[in-house]
């Protein structure tokens, strides 16, 4: 969706009451926001700081962001953000790949992370469909606590009231639609995070989110979690 009327939509979301968090408003029509236009800026090498990964875990060839997946950890933005829109395209390079985008991680929490640690915040998960098969093979069980189509959930001591459908343990917002493509295809995420409410669009379809998030300000992080992944067209727009 080219946001010709984005200011009107933003006004509606900014005045949404957290008290109705259990039942999200109707999903927006299918559309894809490309992250261009007034206020949008691209994020690249100069906009990130390594937190607890190796020096070569993250590289930035040809305006893309590449991650080896090792060790487990994150890099964070130089800036902290509160209200924002984020566009990112990503693709896993191996089946069962795992990664994510963390919103609103605190400086104190990030400074305390050891090698292999992940931050507290709101995670927008990035999983390849092969992760489900790997889980079945390793446990002999059907997965009921995660999906591979865009879960949103709090990590550590962070809090969020997930939009339905909700995981059995009540912590995750499961996607209402399954629109993610498997490796090695590219996927498009659009995230809108306003006043402690997070909404995720996957390949043009709004699928999941939550409200009442705490924290609701902090750093954005990209996750390294054991498998190579590539990001491109990472763009952000700060909102009032």
TrEMBL record:
Alphabetical list of Pfam families matching this protein: 3keto-disac_hyd
Recorded superkingdom: Bacteria
Entry GO MF terms: hydrolase activity
Residues in 3-keto-alpha-glucoside-1,2-lyase/3-keto-2-hydroxy-glucal hydratase domain copies: 52-237
Keyword Lipid metabolism among UniProt keywords: no
Region of interest called Disordered, as start-end residue ranges on this chain: 161-180
InterPro entries, A to Z: AL/BT2_dom (IPR010496)
Protein's name according to its UniProt entry: Membrane protein
